[in-house]
Amino acid sequence: MRGRTRDVEAVLAFLRRIGRQFDISPVLIGEVAVYDFINETAEMASRFDLHAVPRWQYDEEFLALLDSLEAALPLAHASNLSEEPMARTIFQLSEGLIGEIVAIVTAAAVTTVRSGTERITKSALNKLHYIPLSKRRRASVRDDLL
Fold first, then answer.
1. CA 134, CA 139: separation in Å to the nearest integer?
2. How many CB atoms lie within 10 A of CB 86?
3. 71, 42: one domain
4. What's the Rg (C-alpha) of the chain?
């Protein structure tokens, strides 16, 4: 959770208030930084249970995800994201993380629209020079949370 401490504390106060007022359990979804922030205080740590979202596997469900993402893209031409070698490249770059998958496909779509080709190709993916998350972070990464 980024931002001024005062603003973040206001968000957490809001979560406490709506939880009490409406008898609901707020859900936070985020990366390791959210987990770390929540666990800084015993009060907030007691309010949330941690559930790691598993990484995608290279399987039929992953290929179906790519088909769904492609169907949502406003590109003039089919990119066939779920076919080899496109799917394998996206999977390797994303390391199976949903946010990375979406970021890669989105960045490639924007690039192809700007270039006028309106089709994501293996070449377009390579031109992104996308660096996988594990290579961007120098600090130790908690594998069970990513």
1. 10
2. 21
3. no
4. 19
